[in-house]
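Quick illustration for those who missed Monday's session on complexes.
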Amino acid sequence: MNTPRTALVTGGNRGIGFEICRQLAGNGVHVLLGARDRAAGDQAAQALASEGMSVETLELDVSDSRQCADAVRQVAARTQRCDILVNNAGVMLDARGSGVLDAAADVFHQTFETNVYGPLRLMQALAPLMCSQRYGRVVNVSSGLGQLHDMNDGTPAYRMSKTALNALTRMFAAALREDNVLVNAMCPGWVRTRMGGPNAQRTPQQAADTALWLATLPDDGPSGGFFRDRQPIPW
Ligand SMILES: NC(=O)c1ccc[n+]([C@@H]2O[C@H](COP(=O)([O-])OP(=O)(O)OC[C@H]3O[C@@H](n4cnc5c(N)ncnc54)[C@H](OP(=O)(O)O)[C@@H]3O)[C@@H](O)[C@H]2O)c1
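Prediction with NAP bound:
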């Protein structure tokens, strides 16, 4: 293929998402940097463009179903294809110290809008384009906090949202396997971002490496897996 691959990265304006944009663009991928705040997206895209990278902003709040549909229409109109989707945008809204016994229902709803329904909307909307291309790579940025094998109390809405995202990963992988659309989930580890805080052990650069790998898998690469540091981890 001579035209560069095109990627849509949600929540690309900061944190791990910004670094995923940088690593994809640094590997020759044209990046649509999704941001719910247009100005923040433009600032991030300009920072990467000033390093010579091929990046443009796409205004996208993944919790808004109309914006998701519009964004997919814009991707198709602007680039005629979409090879890579990175569902990175995420929120952790649980009140500090709250557990499943006292968690508020609306926190579950709000968390799911971004962490689960956002990826669901985008995967559903982009699947026809990826299938028609007979090429697609979807990376769902999940979390070890969503692992059932190690499930615990604490941040219950966030945990449950990532477990649900993992389930969606398996479903879409099964549905799209025959069309060369590979769908995987990853845990970035504990990362120094606004969400991870200053005491986290890992850099966004380290976290983004697995996303880059999954976003550029060869056709015989894995699908329906869960990875950290390019290695499979339990669900
Ligand atoms: N940091 C960690 O230790 C860690 C560990 C495991 C998993 N993760 C996962 O890694 C991903 C990135 O996290 P991070 O640490 O980079 O977090 P972050 O620094 O808080 O950045 C989150 C990004 O998501 C965007 N976002 C939030 N809600 C959105 C929405 N509705 N629509 C579009 N964008 C939205 C934010 O945009 P605004 O700037 O507009 O707020 C921001 O760009 C998340 O899915 C998170 O769950 C992180």
